[in-house]
Design brief:
Blueprint lengths: L1 H54 L3 H15 L8 E4 L6 E10 L9 E10 L5
Antiparallel strand pairs: 1-2, 2-3
Helix pairs in contact: 1-2
Length: about 120
């Protein structure tokens, strides 16, 4: 009897550890996915600033380009989170946003990661 109870106890502990491992892997995967998406957005933002600075685009066009790229990547960026200063060679853009790291049990984000990107026009880029 005692050996059967002891065996079930070990199985239960093993099951709990497997569940913890799956939970950790899922959160890690979601975090890495969000980080890679943010890296893509940072590269796209710098490209947008370079093109917009060279072509002297309006603030409205720059915002639209940024919002379209953010939507393509699935990032929750709103108009008020984009700050644009200067134009042409003195163009500077700042984008602040938060991304929720999802947890499978909860419907809403458990952890939120804040990102801030500053991109400026670079001569001869």
């Amino acid at each position: 009897m005692k050996s059967a109870a002891k065996s079930r106890g070990k199985q239960l502990v093993l099951l709990v550890w497997v569940l913890v491992l799956i939970f950790y892997i899922y959160i890690s995967y979601d975090y890495v996915r969000v980080q890679m998406t943010d890296d893509k957005f940072a590269d796209a933002l710098q490209h947008i600033v370079q093109v917009a600075g060279t072509e002297r685009r309006t603030y409205k066009e720059i915002r639209s380009l940024i919002l379209v790229r953010a939507e393509d990547l699935g990032l929750p960026i709103r108009v008020e989170q984009i700050a644009i200063k200067g134009s042409g060679p003195s163009l500077n853009v700042t984008v602040d946003y938060d991304v929720d790291i999802d947890i499978p049990i909860f419907r809403h984000g458990f952890y939120s990661k804040h990102y801030e990107h500053k991109a400026s026009y670079r001569q001869g880029f």
